[in-house]
Design a protein that fits this description.
heterodimer; A: 175 residues; alpha/beta; six-stranded parallel β-sheet; B: 190 residues; two-stranded antiparallel sheet; 8 helices; 41% helix
Amino acid sequence: MTIRDLDPVSLPVELGVLEALWRNGIDLAVTVPCKYIARLIVETEQDPRFTLLYPSREEEGLGIAAGAALAGRGAVMLLQNSGLGNMVNAYCSLNLYYGLPLCLIVTHRGDELERVPAQVPMGERTERLLGLLGIRVVLLEKAADLARFEAEIEVHRHDATSVAFLTKKTFWSPS
Amino acid sequence: MTRPDVIRAVLARIADDVIVVSNIADASFELCRLNDRPRNFYMLGSFGLAPSIGLGLALSRPERVVVLNGDGALLYNLGSLPTDGRYAPSNYLHVVVDNGAHGATGYQPTATSAGTDLVAVARGCGLPAQRVDTPAALGEALDAWLATGGARVIVAVATERPAAPAPLPPYSGREIAERFGRALAAAGPA
């Protein structure tokens, strides 16, 4: 039995995300982790079709993803919104200046579901920061939004434009 | 040694298919002036990310990848060394031109001028690493890597300042990326 034979209602959203990435030619994932996507990271690591890398920080991961893009390989970064701030200069002077599209799956910490107060200031500014950088934002709140992810990842690959999937805790499987 | 001496020694030895990623500013300017190859990726921004871009390329392509970095840039992205040591693609060489200073901004001293040992740091990250002080020793180190491969770091001490600055590459970022991407694509899929 393959993943496709499973009942889509019971299919964890993480597997749907991986299938959509794979179908669109993305097989390299670079992560500075978040607990919201702990399952996605495990599933990526266990999927022999994917390579998963852990850079020391997000800016470095952006460089690795850019190197992959230059090689014609699709890459995705999996990170917290707190890490976006660590990538701003590199995104401008590498991705924007050289025309290298970036694909981000971002967990939205510091929103109304947050329990760690220090996450809130960045959480409140995340959408505006992405907007300022000219990165298209796609909000994913519940598992049913997987269809939106599948459609938008195709747009990202087809148009070669940067995209950030800004995901709420409620999009992911309960931990 | 000067930085152009180091770049010249690399260029004299590598095959046409070798990918070169050069650090922001003078390393990129001098590489372009010495030999403007389609497989050169001239970094003009994103300070510190040369080894990271090089790692992404080395993990995605079969060809060898040489990163031309500087001590200031490596100190800025020192976290790249444990990542390089962890994934250690065998087609990856990280050459650090160590002049002990931020040359592009007026030769302000970096920590290597006060004793920070990048070879020891690289070794601590699991990477074979060596320091070279002369063109002859650099040539031997490069020949050894070309013969055997393996992820490796060479710290080339080059405190002598170049005679005159090289001009900027005559390309925009998009032109650099497109030319580089075409050269790789022409060689076949990754």
